[in-house]
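Deliverable D4.2, example record:
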Amino acid sequence: MKKRLCGAGAVLGVLVTVGALPAQASAPAVQPDRHALPLGPTDLPETRTTTTLQPGVTLTRIVRGAEDPSHDPSQHWTVEVSIPGGVTSPDPDAPPTALKDRASADELAAELKRDGFQARVEQVTTPKAADYAGGTALGGRTVKVRLLTPDGWNPHDRRHRQQWPTLWLLHGCCGDYTSWTSMTDVARTDSLRDVLVVMPEAGWNGWYSDWWNHGEGGDPAWETFHTVELRRLLERDWGAGTNRVVAGLSMGGQGALLYAARHPGMFKATAAYSGSAHPLLNDESVDRVMGFFAGQDNDPLRVWGDPVAQRHIWRAHDPFHLAKRLRSIPVYLSCGDGTTGPLDTPGSTSALEADFNRQNHALAAELKRVGARHVTTNFYGPGTHGWAYWERELHASLPMLLRALGNGH
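Output generated by the structure prediction step:
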């Protein structure tokens, strides 16, 4: 059953820049600044309470709807902390701020829970190249990673620090690190309250690969950034354990299969929703992915090279040809057939989904041929390439993924 954010839900947002932070200053007296901001005649009223935590640090509490939840069942609470790193603060006219620790956010979350609400922590990190080993995979560029943190998460408590099981969610082409939280209910999914959810930036069209760049390699090296540099950063600073699973959609579905296959032991299970599971299936599939590679006026040969001359690179990034490496872990594959489905607008079709459907059937057959022991498929027939299906499939695959983490019931 899908969950919607409603009167009993709360989201606590923490936006963090990972890297050099200003020296800790003594906190001045708390000075709340309470004011109401109308959202428009058809929107819920909004009340904001901004508290100064220390010089340059504010915490803004936003309440939409009635103060008493029983007065309006559609109202919800949102609590946000704004931090620098290119992220706008709740007040668009206010400058970005920096937060050294989560003590104030934890206190506010506890207050909401005492009031009968559920507090959910959402965290955005902006890692800098100097903050993790190597730091060269993206040429020193700064990218963002969104974390959904579990209840009780406190990586800054070195004495009682806990290492959390981790679910990586990979976005698709033309998306970014915010896609999963903006397009699905993952931030309000109760079964993930004991899991650290990692949603990394992977480029508009990065394909979860270290690009060939005509034999020169170098930037971008998304695979190295994720599986080496980001992994170390998460484990060192953000409470991530070594117990991981990975899932993704479309381009990210291919990424989830690739990372699990190309890095044996790193992920205990993988799930792909409408994933590019066999880009070498036929000429149509090759032409389609080359078209993606050429997006934003990019030279399509930079990614994996020519599909004939650099066939070995293409095969090394084709989940079908890596099927043997997926034999020992649970694999979840789902896809529609590209025709109008129950979650589509009337008349919708998708040639892309039809192609990926054929690719996923081919991969499923190959996994069976090589003796994969734990393959689950949901080839649900009518359905196009859209978020409504991917949200549904995330929920359908979560029991398998959580069992692999040891969090299943």
